[in-house]
Amino acid sequence: MVQNKDDRFYNEPILRRARKGLPIKELVIDAHGHLGAWMQFYIPQYDAASIVKVMDRCGVKAIAISGMLSIGPDYKAGNRAVAQAADAFPGRFIGYVTPNPNYPAKEVEHELDFWLTSHNWMRGIKLHPSYHEYPITGPRYQIAFEKAREYHVPILSHTWGQGDENSLCGPALFADIAEAYPDVTIILGHAGGLLPGYRTAIEVALDHPNLYLETCGSFQAMGLLEYLVENLGSERILFGSDCCFLAQTAEIGRVVFAKLTTEEKKNILGLNAAKLFNYPA
Q1: In the chain, what are the domain boundaries?
Q2: CATH number, domain 13-276, options 2.60.40.1740, 3.20.20.140, 3.90.550.10, 1.10.357.10
Q3: Distance CA 117, CA 263 (A)
Q4: Phi and psi at residue 211, in whole multiples of 5°?
Q5: Would you state the torsion angle of the CA atoms of residues 219, 222, 228, 234, taken in this order, to the nearest 10 degrees?
Q6: Fewer CB atoms inside 10 Å of the end CB: C or N, the chain?
Q7: C-alpha to C-alpha distance for 67 and 82, rounded to whole angstroms
Q8: pLDDT tens sequence across 193-244
Q9: Rounded alpha-carbon distances, angstroms, from residue 41 to 67, 119, 231
Q10: How far is the C-alpha of 233 from the C-alpha of 231, rounded, in Å?
């Protein structure tokens, strides 16, 4: 929809700066990113240095990442790659430790303990029930929520409220989990997926204050950000890009050009994430 110049959001300061092609000067933390090549399609720039280059262009201070290998064939190698990126670019990468529930429980527990105690920038846990082909409600994911509680770190989980994925990680499944772990912050990646998932994610989040919604997705509808803010408020919505599956430039533009106030954009772009990841605002 083309904005008229009398639209009250037309001269919003963050949008005005973006129109000039300048990086965002407010705090921006991308809550959903990936590092590394992917097995299903070509990604031209997937290394840490290339990601930082795009971040600088956009004005992104930090990005929370998981390793592509971790949601693919080698979860330990993916976690090592994330830690190496965080070491190479201090303060720019926040690491998610990704467990794979298909491996022995003691091995997975050791992997979580090791990274969450030995590396300062490993500050979250990433779950991907779809690619790991294991339901979020399954008992082998319980250790991840227990470790999130123990170490006071958030969990980001892939969610999708439509098709076969709905039985693995549909947003409705997180209601019981949120009740079982009320002191664990759980981020619903993609805000539940397509439109049926958005609606369910909002309903579940309204009933559970420890649930947050994250914005990225290749099928996101126009007006989604406004819809989420209208129904949930801006304090529990996080900007995420799904880099390098998707372009960070395009995903951040969806927030910048949304019909939201400056304060709402600040919350979504970085202030909410700064609190969750203990990142200086």
Answers
A1: 13-276
A2: 3.20.20.140
A3: 35
A4: -100, 135
A5: 110
A6: N
A7: 6
A8: 888 899 999 999 999 999 999 999 877 778 999 999 999 999 999 999 999 9
A9: 16, 31, 36
A10: 6
